[in-house]
C-alpha cells in the first residue's frame, strides 16, 4: 500500500527547470532566478528599514571602509606602489617594444584644467520614510535618504553571515532580513506568489568554507519560513565547475569582499585545500580611489562612504581598470555624477597607470592595509557539536579513537604472545592515535588553521592550495586547469598576468604540459558561472537523491544534511 503524499511522489519525478529557483547570495549582490532562465536577476543584496524614533542607528557601507594608517603603514603602501610603478616601467608590450609608464604628476597636470559639464536636473529621487511602509530592497537602498536615518543591512559580509553587535546584527535578525529580501525577489522579480512555493524547489549556493550552524538555519529558512517544497545546498566552487563544464579544477572566486581558493575534483571540494582571504573587489575600489586622489582626481566632493559615490567608483573601476600591458599612456575616462534633485555633472578626465596599479593589488596585498590590517587567510574550521545531531564529528572522533585503541591493544597482545621481546608496537601505536583519528574524522589535517594565518597574494594562495592536495597526480591536474570566477575576475589581462606569475613558481616535478587559466567559460559572465552551474546541477538525474523535503526536515532535522549534502558535513 502506497501511503506517500502527491508532493512526496513528485520528488522522484524529473525536475522541471521552470519550478527550480537558484539562489546565490553574495556580500554585495544577490543572484536569483529559475533554472530555466538564461541569466539570473542581480540586485544589491541589502535591505534598509526606517530607524525607530530615538532608536540605535546602523548603516553597513557599500564599500569596505578605509582605516586611518600610521606613518609607517602609509609609507609602506606608498613604497609598494612605487615599486609596482617601476615594474610596469620595465615591462614590454606584446610586440616587444618598451612600455611607456605614467606618473601621478603627469595625470594631475592633465586633469588640472578639467571642468565638469553641467547638465539638466536629475530626475532621480531619494526614497524617504514616507515612501515606504516597512523596508527598501536592492538598488533602491542606495537612495535611502540619510536624513530619515534608515538602518541599512547587508546580510552577508566577507562571504559569511554578517553577525555583529549592533542593531539587526543577531542571527535571528539576519535570517529575518534574508527571508524578506528573498521573498520580495521571488514575489516581485520571479512573479511567484509565496503560497505557490510549495510547488517549487530551491538550490542555495553556499560558500566553500561554511559554518554548519548557519547552513542549518538557512535550510530551515527555505523549507519552513519561505515554504519551498524541497531544497539542497551546493558549494560555490563545485557549482562553478559545473557551470564551466570541468571535471577537475583549482577554482578561484574573486568576490566583492573575499577571495576564496579550493581544488575541486569530481564535484567534491577538497577540504584541506580551501582558503578564504578577506580582500576582494571592494578593496580594489578603495585602492583605486587612493591612487586617483593622488593624481588630481577632479571630483573633489567624492565621498567613498556615501552609497552613490561608492557605486560610482565601482562602475569606473569595472569599466576602465585592467591588466593589459598594451594599454599605456594617459587614457580618457568619462563618468557622470548624478544625485537626486541637483544638476548632473559630466567629467572627461585622464588616468594613467593607476588603472593597472589598482587590480595589481591582488599580487601585492600589502596595499590592502588601506582597508585594515586584519586580512588573514582561513581554512575550514573543525566541526563543532550540535545537540540535534548525536552522530556529529565529536561522536565520530571519540568512537574512532576508542575502536582504534582497542584494535591496537589486541594487535599488541597478539604480537606479545608471538614475540615477548618486541613490545614496541603498542607504544608506537599510542603515539599515532590522534593522527589516525583525525584522518578518520575528517579529510583535513588538524594543522589547517595555523598554516593559513598568513596574508597570501592571489598567486601564493593558489600555490598553497594546490600544495595541500593529497597526491602528486592531483597537483598536476590542478596546475593544468585553473578557473577564475566572480565579479573581481573581469579585469582584462588578469589571466595572462596570473599565468606568468604562476609559471615562475610551479614546482618542476608538478609542472604540467600546459597551464590553462579559464575566465568566463562559454562566453559567460564570470560572476554568473556558479549560478549557472547550480542551475545545471539541479536538473541532473543524479541530483534527485540530494533533495530535502519539508516533512523530512521537520522530523529528522540537521542529521539529513549529513546524509544528503553533496559535500563533507
UniProtKB/TrEMBL annotation:
InterPro entries associated with the record: Actin, ATPase_NBD
Keyword Nucleotide-binding: yes
Cellular component GO terms, alphabetical: nucleus
Gene Ontology MF term list: ATP binding
GO biological process, one term: DNA recombination
CDD domains for the chain: ASKHA_NBD_Arp8-like
Biased composition (Basic and acidic residues): 388-408
Compartment(s) of residence: Nucleus
Recorded superkingdom: Eukaryota
Family membership: Belongs to the actin family. ARP8 subfamily.
Purpose: Plays an important role in the functional organization of mitotic chromosomes. Exhibits low basal ATPase activity, and unable to polymerize.
Name under which the protein is recorded: Actin-related protein 8
Gene: EOG090X02LT
Amino acid at each position: 500500500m502506497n501511503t506517500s503524499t502527491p508532493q512526496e511522489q513528485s520528488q522522484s519525478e524529473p525536475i522541471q527547470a521552470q519550478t527550480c529557483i537558484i539562489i546565490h547570495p553574495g556580500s554585495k549582490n544577490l543572484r536569483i532566478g529559475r533554472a530555466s532562465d538564461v541569466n539570473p536577476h542581480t540586485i544589491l543584496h541589502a535591505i534598509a528599514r526606517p530607524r525607530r524614533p530615538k532608536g540605535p542607528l546602523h548603516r553597513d557601507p557599500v564599500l569596505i571602509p578605509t582605516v586611518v594608517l600610521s606613518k609607517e603603514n602609509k609609507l609602506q603602501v606608498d613604497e609598494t606602489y612605487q615599486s609596482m610603478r617601476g615594474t610596469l616601467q620595465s615591462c614590454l608590450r606584446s610586440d616587444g617594444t618598451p612600455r611607456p609608464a605614467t606618473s601621478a604628476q603627469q595625470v594631475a597636470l592633465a586633469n588640472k584644467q578639467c571642468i565638469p559639464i553641467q547638465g539638466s536636473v536629475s530626475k532621480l529621487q531619494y526614497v524617504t520614510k514616507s515612501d515606504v511602509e516597512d523596508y527598501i530592497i536592492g538598488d533602491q537602498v542606495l537612495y535611502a535618504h540619510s536624513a530619515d536615518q534608515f538602518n541599512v543591512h547587508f546580510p552577508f559580509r566577507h562571504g559569511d553571515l554578517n553577525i555583529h553587535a549592533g542593531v539587526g546584527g543577531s542571527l535571528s535578525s539576519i535570517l529575518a532580513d534574508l527571508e524578506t529580501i528573498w521573498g520580495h525577489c521571488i514575489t516581485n522579480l520571479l512573479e511567484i506568489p509565496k503560497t505557490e512555493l510549495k510547488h517549487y524547489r530551491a538550490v542555495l549556493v553556499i560558500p566553500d568554507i561554511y559554518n554548519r550552524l548557519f547552513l542549518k538555519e538557512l535550510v530551515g529558512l527555505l523549507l519552513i519560513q519561505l515554504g519551498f517544497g524541497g531544497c539542497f545546498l551546493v558549494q560555490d566552487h563545485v557549482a562553478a565547475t559545473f557551470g564551466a563544464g570541468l571535471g577537475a579544477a583549482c577554482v578561484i572566486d574573486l568576490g566583492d569582499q573575499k577571495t576564496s581558493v579550493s581544488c575541486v575534483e569530481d564535484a567534491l571540494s577538497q577540504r584541506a585545500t580551501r582558503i578564504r582571504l578577506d580582500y576582494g573587489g571592494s578593496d580594489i575600489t578603495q585602492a583605486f580611489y587612493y591612487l586617483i586622489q593622488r593624481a588630481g582626481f577632479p571630483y573633489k566632493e567624492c565621498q567613498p562612504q556615501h552609497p552613490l559615490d561608492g557605486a560610482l567608483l565601482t562602475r569606473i573601476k569595472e569599466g576602465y581598470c585592467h591588466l593589459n600591458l598594451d594599454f599605456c599612456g594617459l587614457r580618457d575616462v568619462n563618468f557622470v555624477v548624478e544625485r537626486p534633485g541637483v544638476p548632473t555633472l559630466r567629467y572627461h578626465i585622464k588616468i594613467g597607470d593607476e588603472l593597472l596599479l589598482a587590480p595589481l593589488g591582488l599580487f601585492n596585498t600589502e596595499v590592502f592595509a588601506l582597508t585594515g590590517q586584519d586580512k588573514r587567510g582561513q581554512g575550514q574550521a573543525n566541526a563543532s557539536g550540535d545537540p540535534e545531531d548525536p552522530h556529529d564529528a565529536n561522536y565520530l572522533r571519540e568512537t574512532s579513537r576508542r575502536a582504534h585503541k582497542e584494535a591496537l591493544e589486541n594487535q599488541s597482545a597478539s604480537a606479545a604472545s608471538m614475540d615477548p621481546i618486541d613490545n614496541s608496537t603498542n607504544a608506537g601505536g599510542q603515539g599515532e592515535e590522534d593522527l589516525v583519528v583525525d584522518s578518520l574524522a575528517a579529510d583535513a589535517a588538524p594543522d589547517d588553521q595555523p598554516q593559513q594565518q598568513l596574508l597570501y597574494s592571489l598567486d601564493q594562495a593558489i600555490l598553497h592550495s594546490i600544495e595541500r592536495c593529497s597526491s602528486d597526480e592531483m597537483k598536476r591536474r590542478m596546475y593544468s586547469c585553473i578557473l577564475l570566477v566572480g565579479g573581481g575576475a573581469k579585469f582584462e589581462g588578469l589571466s595572462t598576468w596570473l599565468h606568468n606569475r604562476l609559471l615562475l613558481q610551479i614546482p618542476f616535478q608538478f609542472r604540467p604540459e600546459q597551464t590553462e587559466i579559464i575566465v568566463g567559460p562559454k562566453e559567460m559572465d564570470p560572476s554568473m558561472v556558479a549560478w549557472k552551474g547550480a542551475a545545471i546541477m539541479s536538473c541532473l538525474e543524479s541530483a534527485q537523491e540530494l533533495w530535502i523535503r519539508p516533512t523530512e526536515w521537520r522530523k529528522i532535522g540537521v542529521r539529513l544534511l549529513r546524509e544528503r549534502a553533496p559535500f563533507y558535513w
